[in-house]
Amino acid sequence: MTPPATTANPSDHPWRSIVITLFPELFPGPLAASVVGQALENGTWTLDTVAIRDHGLGRHRAVDDTPAGGGAGMVMRADVLGAAIDDARALYPANSSDLPLLIMSPRGEPLTQKMVEDLSKGPGAILLAGRFEGIDERIIKGRNAKEVSIGDYVLSGGELAAYVLIDACVRLRPGVLGATESLAHESFEDGLLEYPQYTRPRTWEGHDIPDILLSGDHAKIAKWRDDKARELTKHRRPDLLTDKSTTK
Ligand code: ADE
Fold first, then answer.
1. Among the atoms of ligand 1, which is closest to the Cα of residue 104?
2. Alpha carbon 196 to chain centroid, angstroms
3. pLDDT in tens, 98-111
4. ∠139-94-131 over CA atoms, to 5°?
């Protein structure tokens, strides 16, 4: 295997991820597969987990309690989470204060490719995967955290969201994807969804590859792809076109 460009920008350090979770056994899980898994093996990025349960209180190692003011469900305790976060920061004392603390939550700021790009250029991230009804609000200011959502739906916990965020960041690190070409025209790269792609056979179940793609006229092909990307984006994700970056 070709060694990664480990000394290339944006950093001399591996991209650090630390996941704070009740289920450390879920990691690396799917992050051990494919190019992201290879990059984990060769040290392009690192993954540590902090088990929230290790900071639980009492004989039962309690991590949650009933909500102040009443109501259903349980809330994760600020003292327990605070100790788990401090434990995570202690893992890499030299640069741990630079790692942003992100709390995975459906009420967080929506995760976008722009946010992923910014995070991937940084030193890494500490991700807190919550469970139960929520976490004590005081932890957010108390530990300078940002809440991040991966979409407008509710997962049973933040671990799946942590997989998503880590995968999206790591694949942008230098050397992780084989050909730089595969980053060149992907969805969101220029604020548009990706144009349709085709490969052999030329005719499949009566459907042909559009003639223009076989014409060899690179300027026409580029124009066709741009038109298709805009058409698709307008139809499926008109919200993306209101962003000034796409109104070329
Ligand atoms: N935890 C539960 N639902 C979530 C979501 N949509 N995004 C991030 N974390 C979550």
1. 9
2. 24
3. 999 999 999 999 99
4. 30
Beta-carbon contacts of 203 under 8 Å, excluding residues fewer than 6 positions away, are: 209
Length of the chain as a residue count: 248
Tokens coding 30: 């799917």
Report which residue type is found at 6: T
- 117-162 pLDDT, tens digit each: 999 999 999 999 998 789 999 999 999 999 999 999 999 999 999 9
Instruction: Report the C-alpha gap between 245 and 188 in whole angstroms.
Output: 10
Lining residues, ligand 1, CB within 6 Å: 104-106, 149-151, 153-155, 158, 161
pLDDT tens-digit series, residues 192-201: 999 999 999 9
**What separation in Å is there between the alpha carbon of 212 and the centre of ligand 1?**
43
The sign one gets for the Cα dihedral 183, 109, 77, 154 is negative
